[in-house]
């Protein structure tokens, strides 16, 4: 796939033509698309802008795209907001599509949705704040709520904001990236479960040297990461080159930045045999 400058691939999955794609925006609105409704293009094509496929409002952006074959009764949609609210609802509650979308979650005026995922109801959730704290919570801590509801507090952010939520995959490590190009990875087993709504534990020591947390991803040894800066520079690094270190550390330098430049996003990708490469536009 060809991408424009300052763009990276965020969602990659396989699906059959009659599967649903559930598309959730930062405003908590959910849309449906059948896979066959997305124009088929060649492998090197840019693709079609999603604003041409959905009736998005000004300032509304896609935060999650989830492929669904069946709306199973024993599966759930779990969503997290920037203010640390987590909502768990039966997947079947989202099975009736409307052309203009439906409300997936009720948001406070100063809040927005940052991520959504599908679970079987028995997983462990991992949440992390921009201040470097994180919390691992059993999914059973969250009761199932109706579709048009707000959710409950997943993490006490103590004045910070949530940067992400994911389902723990045992055997993988948690890779954290900060805005000044530092990163660290720690085995998932080092994070013990806590009760929902707590302040969590310190995962990366945020200082003026490394900057606040941009985000985290779960990674395996044979994968790579792609980091992009606010000036459009991109760097690709194999995960195997990033040492596993303790939980309460600042991390190591992964990317050299110019004065005033910051990391703004990261993505996980299948690693090739290519050496580490800094790709300036």
How would you explain this protein's 3D organization?
The chain has 281 residues and is an all-beta fold. The chain has one domain: Neuraminidase. The protein contains no helices and 20 strands. A four-stranded antiparallel β-sheet has the order 3-1-2-6, with no helix packed on it. β4 and β5 form a beta hairpin. The protein is globular and about 50 Å long. The C terminus is likely disordered.
Give the SSE map.
Layout: E1 20-25, E2 29-34, E3 62-68, E4 76-81, E5 85-90, E6 102-103, E7 113-119, E8 124-129, E9 133-138, E10 152-153, E11 162-167, E12 173-178, E13 182-187, E14 201-202, E15 213-219, E16 223-229, E17 234-238, E18 252-253, E19 263-270, E20 277-279
Antiparallel strand pairs: 1-2, 1-3, 2-6, 4-5, 4-7, 5-10, 8-9, 8-11, 9-14, 12-13, 12-15, 13-18, 16-17, 16-19, 17-20
Based on secondary structure, the structural category is mainly beta
Overall 3D form: globular
Determine Rg (CA atoms, Å).
19 Å
Low-confidence stretches: 272-281
CATH architectural grouping: 6 Propeller
Q: Mean pLDDT across all residues, rounded?
A: 87
Largest sheet: spatial strand order: 3-1-2-6
Separation of termini? 17 Å
**Helix share of residues?**
under 10%
Question: What is the CATH third-level topology name?
Answer: Neuraminidase
Number of separate domains: 1
